[in-house]
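User: Please run a holo structure prediction.
Assistant: Happy to. Please share the sequence and the ligand.
User: Here you go; the ligand is magnesium ion.
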Amino acid sequence: MPDDATTLAELKTAVARFSDERDWAVFHGAKDLAIGVVTEAAELLEVFRFQPEAAVDARMTEPDIRRRVESELADVFFFVLRLAQRYDIDLSAAFARKLALNAERYPVDKARGSNRKYTEL
Ligand SMILES: [Mg+2]
């Protein structure tokens, strides 16, 4: 299922099937799915804990680090997809709305090369 040949709808269906086969709907309310997003994101951060900033990009080329990052990203994505699937959230539409909002918040002429929050531009 490569990115360029897979739709979000297909991934939502796969997540629903995986969860339904295990009768996990009872565990997959909005609160617990949101907790899943954050706890898996914390596991992603753990890959980089105590690593000096200058070493992080180089570590991303190490196969074992890359596998851990891919694994934790997939865990985060599972919970994102499951939350969207369970509560009928159109992720593509939500993402497009957010990207448009952020384009307004971060106009290129003010935000280019800046890491300041939109309220400080
Ligand atoms: Mg994990």
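The pocket of magnesium ion is lined by residues 40, 43, 72, 75 (CB under 6 Å).
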